[in-house]
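hiii, so i know i said id send this last week but things got crazy w the move. better late than never?? heres the sequnce for the chain we talked about at the cafe, plus the structure i predicted for it. fair warning i was half asleep when i ran it
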Amino acid sequence: MVDTYAYIVACWYGPRRMGLGRAGHYIESHLDALHRKVLDNVVLPVFCINTQNDRLKDIQVTRELIDKYRPYDVEPQVVYRANDHWSYGAWQEAIIWLLNNRPDIKYAMLIEDDYLPVRPDFAVPFIQSLKHYNGAFCCQYIWLDGEKFVSASISNGMIDLDKARTIFNEHKCVFMLSPDETQWSSQRFFVNLMANKYPILGLNNYTHPFSETYITETSIYKKELIRGGTAGVLLRPLE
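okay and structure toks below
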């Protein structure tokens, strides 16, 4: 039996850190991949838009972009929300939507809009890891202190929605989102509720490129860095 999954993209049209990025460019890359059918076994794409002050403009832009890349095998679902708690808040909003509206879906891939899968079967190692270790969440790269879980260091990953439902029923939320609204705090702690009950996993044996912003007196630039092993690349930053 083939394992299908929802594909949740956390989106933002506003300025990026240090002013980098182009509004709409990132979501277009995901829509194009869905249109060209290069991602295996996506049962439902979900775009969760962290809206700016002009919410209606963001809605209009999203509709235009979705129309631009038709047809799709499955019509994308769009969730609009206030911009709080960064991608982690967007992912949680979309997860709760799935729990309420698509209880038939077992897994969901959580991905930030500025990352993109580089191979059709990218989801397979995530799901295999969840099954093998009975985990709740498998991220790209996990930060460990010895064998002790610290954080989902590169946070894109696959979540088991049955376990997410258990957490939601107990806590009325899935993620532990930091009240101070800093991105670092949200990233550091967002899976802690799940980690108290289930294994949190990482594909550290795979190669994980990521971008880091550097500031000098005269310029701002991004440099690609690498974490993980040599088993191959699954997702890559778009810039």
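btw The first strand starts at residue 5 and ends at 12. thought thatd interest u
miss u guys!!
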